[in-house]
Design a protein that fits this description.
- There is one protein chain.
- By secondary structure, the protein is an alpha+beta fold.
- It has two domains: 7-47, no CATH class; 51-90, no CATH class.
- Helix content is 29%, strand content 19%.
- The protein is built from three helices and four strands, in the order ββαββαα.
- It has helices at residues 33-47, 72-77, 84-90; strands at 7-12, 15-20, 51-53, 60-62.
- A hairpin with a 6-residue loop joins β3 and β4.
- The longest helix has 15 residues, at 33-47.
- The radius of gyration is 17 Å and the shape is elongated.
- The mean pLDDT is 80.
- The structure holds zinc ion.
Length: 95
């Protein structure tokens, strides 16, 4: 079993770029692999393991990046309507 990293460097033609798990390019092209690796590392450090706590229910979920701050459940039901009751229900097993 190989775990796919959140971001990795791919050679595309004669150049290098950082791609995400979906193989979508998330950086400009670099001529030097070192430059791409550098950006790749920064990306990974920025998002940590990719796990984030939901702003609404505090559940851990896999985040796509800085813009992604709520779990898919909360996002699908709309953040504005979240009540404190759901926080209690969802975080019962956590500290
Ligand atoms: Zn949530």
């Amino acid at each position: 079993m190989s775990k796919i990293p959140l971001y990795r460097v791919r050679q595309i033609g004669l150049q290098f770029a950082v791609v995400n798990r979906a193989n979508e390019r998330v950086s400009p092209f670099f001529r030097r692999k070192d430059d791409a690796e550098d950006i790749c590392q920064k990306r990974i450090e920025k998002v940590g393991t990719g796990l984030r706590r939901c702003l609404s229910c505090r559940a851990e979920f896999q985040s796509d990046g800085a813009h992604h701050r709520m779990c898919s459940y909360c996002r699908s039901r709309g953040a504005a309507s979240v009540t404190p009751v759901s926080v209690v229900l969802n975080s019962g097993a956590q500290i």
